[in-house]
Amino acid sequence: MDETGLDVQVLSLTAPGVQSLEPDLAVALQTASNDLLADTVRRRPDRFQGFATLATPDPSAAARELERAVTKLGMNGAMLFGRTRDRNLDHRDNWPIFEAASALRAPLYIHPQSPAPAVRDAIYGGLGEATDAALATFGLGWHYETGVQILRMVLAGVFDRFPDLQLITGHWGEVVLFYLDRIDNLAGPAKLAHPVSDYFRRHVSVTPSGVWSQRYLRWALEVLGPERILFSSDYPYSFTPDGGARRFLQDADLTDVDRAAIAYGNWERLIANIRRD
């Protein structure tokens, strides 16, 4: 953190979390993971914060754990990974989690996961083992997968049902921001109350996730505005030494007010709204 220029880091269990496990094991591991993470944060609260792990194979248990993690352990929301086996994120079984997050006003970070095996074989296969794996994950597949999962939540009416629900996602919006003008055409078939882009501007914040692109930053500013951008690196997947993460923000063409908001202010405002009792 010191080497790359970060003062505070939000810790989490990385993909695939516990979402592919049997319910009983997933529930046991969510508790153990969150207790360990909370203990880590307690030892260095000046440098660490935490996102809870949720056992989505048992959504009711996951909702109860989110409440415990936020109100008892001091977590600042939770991290989810899209599908739970063959169940997409918008599935009605998951709505108790969204209900709990909305009631707590605790943000959910939607993190990339690998595409389903059939999709991976059909779309990303046939180019050679190394290329197939790269294309299906960090090359593109992770980002399409995550963006589609969030879009499904919008189209399924999750945000109409839970108007206080807030999401965060990485990599400058997981492709979706670059196609919102086109994606807005889905509002009619889905019978949404608002254009899809409105749901993103009201409910979704984006992070760079270590993709240090000033062009993408300008695009996110134009599409969402500075109040919807949260600064983040992507450690341990990418690492920029010699103050590289901090330098990206320092060099950006931003006002001092917007730079401070993106660096920490937007995050502090978001977590200040969490209901902890």
Quick structural overview:
By secondary structure, the chain is an alpha/beta fold. The protein is built from 14 helices and seven strands. The chain has a single domain (9-272), classed as Alpha-Beta Barrel (TIM Barrel).
Verbal overview:
This protein has a single domain, classed as Metal-dependent hydrolases (TIM Barrel). Helices cover 50% and strands 7% of the residues. It has 14 helices and 7 strands. The chain has helices at residues 23-43, 59-71, 95-104, 117-124, 129-139, 141-155, 158-161, 171-174, 180-183, 187-190, 196-203, 214-224, 244-251, 256-272; strands at residues 9-11, 48-50, 52-53, 78-80, 108-110, 167-169, 204-206. It has a 5-stranded parallel sheet with strand order 3-4-5-6-7. Helix 1 packs parallel to helix 2 (59-71) and helix 2 (59-71) runs parallel beside helix 3. The chain is globular, with a radius of gyration of 18 Å.
